[in-house]
TrEMBL record:
One Gene Ontology molecular-function label: gamma-glutamyl-gamma-aminobutyrate hydrolase activity
A single Gene Ontology CC term: cytosol
Cross-referenced CDD domains: GATase1_2 (cd01745)
Species in which this protein is naturally found: Carnobacterium divergens DSM 20623
This protein's UniProt keywords: Glutamine amidotransferase, Transferase
SUPFAM superfamilies: Class I glutamine amidotransferase-like
One GO BP: polyamine catabolic process
One Pfam short name: Peptidase_C26
Protein name: Glutamine amidotransferase, class I
Length: 240
């Protein structure tokens, strides 16, 4: 049996001509490709009623949290700063319910970009709303170049699960203007950019199987075996 991977989908809220201005539910293709190439069965969840989270999580072996909008600052007790970008509160509340149910059922989680941020927010952590407001973050985290190639390095804790997959240093792509500020106490940071920003974390509780990364492995997996390796590992974790 192939493990079933629930992917929390997004809603295209900007009217797109190609869809005749209709609203469209979607997930970036790299998540589908990464899961399929790892022999998993992707299942995209449209944004829905938080009360349905259990019914969704009951059906899956792992939860994938994808990239997208900024998390609403109210989720971590902050007011919106001037450089906050688009938020989608319906997605925030639905994903919060999916996360809480997945943790309750101890289903493996793979969180990417916005995913690392909302997971941290739901568990009591906080975010930087825009890195340019803080001069200490001196590495470019919003790369203007193509996403298939990494731009900044991260150093990885040699004792982490992530290091067993990527080694202790790797080049990652970077498309985030927000980042982890205070990490939730349930998590332990496992990778940092050279300016000290948290780029990955895992769960402290060995009963929870979580890999969260700030970069976009789904945009590198087609050409980078190590990044496909994160998907292979997720499917492996979801197989138990
Ligand atoms: Mn980065």
């Amino acid at each position: 049996m192939k493990p079933i991977i629930g992917i929390a989908g997004n809603l295209l809220t900007k009217h797109a001509e190609v869809f005749h201005d209709n609203l469209v539910t979607y997930t970036p293709q790299g998540f589908v490709d990464g899961v399929q190439q790892a022999n998993g069965l992707p299942l995209v969840f449209p944004i829905g009623n938080p009360a349905d989270a259990k019914a969704y999580i009951d059906q899956i072996d792992g939860l994938l949290l994808a990239g997208g909008q900024d998390v609403a600052p109210s989720f971590y007790g902050a007011e919106p700063s001037l450089k906050l970008q688009e938020t989608e509160p319906r997605r925030d509340f639905f994903e919060k319910a999916l996360i809480e149910e997945a943790l309750k059922q101890k289903k493996p989680i793979f969180a990417v970009c916005r995913g690392i941020q909302i997971l941290n927010s739901v568990q009591g952590g906080t975010l930087y709303q825009d890195l340019s407001e803080y001069p200490q973050w001196s590495v470019q985290h919003l790369q203007p170049s193509i996403p298939t190639v990494g731009s900044h390095s991260v150093s990885i804790d040699s004792k982490s699960h992530l290091a067993s997959l990527l080694g202790t240093s790797v080049l990652v792509n970077s498309y985030h203007h927000q980042a982890i500020k205070e990490l939730a106490t349930d998590f332990v940071a496992t990778a940092w950019s050279t300016d000290g920003l948290v780029e990955a974390y895992e769960a402290k509780d060995p009963a929870q199987s979580i890999v969260a990364v700030q970069w976009h492995p789904e945009l590198m997996q087609a050409t980078d075996e190590k990044m496909q390796g994160l998907f292979n590992d997720f499917i492996e974790r979801a197989s138990h």
